[in-house]
Q: What sequence folds into this?
């Protein structure tokens, strides 16, 4: 079930109305039933690996406290089973394809064809969220959850189930266990956030996708045309992913939950490390706390720190997808962040130069992320600007200007969030938010894209 659909709106309205008519335990059972229905809406088969992960990690958390003498065994079982399940669904086909390719090049008989599996939506998200709970219990950062139904609501909470934010148990599970009341004071703020998410998706992201998809379908695109498509994809993926987060946070807020912020104006970053403090914050902090720091972080000198950064970003790239372009994308960002840690403070330019420079580096990364065909990717990086005809420069300029027009609401939102909110506090009132909600709703009706697509991060 996708957020920007009539099915979701009807589903959420029913859940919202029933939720506030029930006592706390009834609310939890409703959220659990609704979340399982939400996740199994496309394929009920997805519920099988999901339920396995949920029950396994709840049991491992209980065993960590009940039988601490074998705590390493319980932690190993949790991590091994979770990663094994993730690899089976997500990386099995990638592994088989590469083995067959190597065998073919060696002149040997290829491996027999194996039935491909449909990857359950959001498996990377809920696997990492569930694993972090077991690790936190192992580390003594929190107590194990006593009731399976409480833990099940934490893992399956439908607003953030498929594409995050990847919540920590200390933050979300504590809210599951607490009494909640309808957020009267913040209701219009959460509703406005949902509407802003719809604007990001159906007005900005889906329109930008039309340009990006068209350009990437042209296999002999010239330099200006290609990079106009990369720019469109940069706007598309940011608007698309932040739209999901906004709708998720707004939906959760109306149900009495507060999900973490996942984006903080990433295209205003002044360095690679700064970008990852702003982009997909829940994943970058997860990678820091559960991979980078356990590897040693920066404790053992610059060489070890560089190694740990590269390993962390290679894992991050693999997390995003079973394809070599994601591995290259992770390696690319690992090199940028490692270089930034080693030399960034010595040569970092002022923000007026650093922001566009960082955006250009980010767009190079988005080309690695978007193009999965290695041959075409190599071809794209061989393009030279001086060989493109004048007509292509005009086309590229037109497409870039079109995308920049779509990005104006993002620029206005960034200005308001960083400057306008403090200069004009009177606009952050109930009447002003109501007026803004009506304006956003009108914008959705008037300018929504004629073609809609699923959220990009559903595939991860």
A:
């Amino acid at each position: 079930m996708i957020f920007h659909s009539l099915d979701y709106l009807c589903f959420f309205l029913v859940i919202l109305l029933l939720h506030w008519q029930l006592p706390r335990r009834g609310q939890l059972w409703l959220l659990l039933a609704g979340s399982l229905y939400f996740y199994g809406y496309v394929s009920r088969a997805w519920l099988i690996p999901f339920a396995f992960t949920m029950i396994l990690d709840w049991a491992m958390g209980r065993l960590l406290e009940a039988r601490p003498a074998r705590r390493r065994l319980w932690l190993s079982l949790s991590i091994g089973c979770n990663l094994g399940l993730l690899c089976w669904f997500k990386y099995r086909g990638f592994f088989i394809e590469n083995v067959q390719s190597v065998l073919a090049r060696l002149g040997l008989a290829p491996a027999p064809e194996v039935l491909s599996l449909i990857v359950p939506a959001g498996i990377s998200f809920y696997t990492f969220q569930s694993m972090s709970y077991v690790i936190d219990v192992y580390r003594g950062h929190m107590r194990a959850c006593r009731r399976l139904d409480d833990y099940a609501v934490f893992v399956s909470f439908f607003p953030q189930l498929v594409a995050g934010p990847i919540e920590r148990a200390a933050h979300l599970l504590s809210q599951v266990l607490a009494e909640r009341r309808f957020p009267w004071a913040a209701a219009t703020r959460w509703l406005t956030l949902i509407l802003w998410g719809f604007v990001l998706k159906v007005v900005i992201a889906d329109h930008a996708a039309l340009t990006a998809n068209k350009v990437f379908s042209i296999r002999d695109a010239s330099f200006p045309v290609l990079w106009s498509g990369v720019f469109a994809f940069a706007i598309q993926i940011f608007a698309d992913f932040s739209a999901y987060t906004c709708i998720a946070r707004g939906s959760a807020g109306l149900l009495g939950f507060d999900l973490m912020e996942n984006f903080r104006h990433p295209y205003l970053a002044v360095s690679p490390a700064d970008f990852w403090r702003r982009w997909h914050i829940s994943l970058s902090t997860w990678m820091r706390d559960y991979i980078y720091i356990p590897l040693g972080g920066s404790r053992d000198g610059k060489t070890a720190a560089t190694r740990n950064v590269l390993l962390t970003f290679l894992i991050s790239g693999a997390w995003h997808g079973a394809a070599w372009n994601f591995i290259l994308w992770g390696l690319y960002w690992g090199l940028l962040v490692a270089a930034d840690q080693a030399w960034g403070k010595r040569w970092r330019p002022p923000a007026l130069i650093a922001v566009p420079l960082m955006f250009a580096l980010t767009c190079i990364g988005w080309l690695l992320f978007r193009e999965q065909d290695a041959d075409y990717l190599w071809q794209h990086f061989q393009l030279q600007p001086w060989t493109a005809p004048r007509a292509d420069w005009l086309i590229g300029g037109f497409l870039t200007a079109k995308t920049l027009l779509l990005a104006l609401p993002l620029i206005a939102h960034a200005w308001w969030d960083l400057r306008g909110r403090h200069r004009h506090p009177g606009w952050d009132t109930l009447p002003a938010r109501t007026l803004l909600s009506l304006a956003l709703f009108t914008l959705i009706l008037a300018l929504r894209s004629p073609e809609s697509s699923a959220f990009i991060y559903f595939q991860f």
